[in-house]
Write a structure and sequence with these properties.
4-stranded parallel β-sheet, alpha/beta, 28% helix, globular
Length: 150
Amino acid sequence: MRQFTRNQVHKVNLRENTTMQWLHIKKEDMSEPKYPRIYPQTDIPRLKKGMVGAQFWAIFVDCGSQDKDAIRQALDTTAATHTWINQYDDAFRLVTTSDGIREAFKANRIASLIGLEGGHMLGNTMGVLRTFYLLGCRYMTITHSCDTPW
């Protein structure tokens, strides 16, 4: 999402269908090979229509960032996720436990959980893993599409 919005995710309106909200790509240009057909997959109308009660916001950064700026990119994406959850607090609630999911459901909110898609975002540091936990991340895939040194 950050890539396709040129790091302006705050301008994406989750109250409207996000399918064509890529800010810099014209609709007629979407068929060009340089723009993969990866459309935004989350917005409030579709979540409500699908009666979604909980969702994981997946934090992912490209494997090429491993040993470079993967931690920063993952933190930026996690911060953007927190921004959306807070901006749309009438629809979402950050949760970190199964009890939190039930409480969000009772409050008519979509329980929002956060997960890391790949251990390459840790920079081989347990302190980074603990930091992501403090930020609300509750799962991490060991690998996604790249290996980790550990």
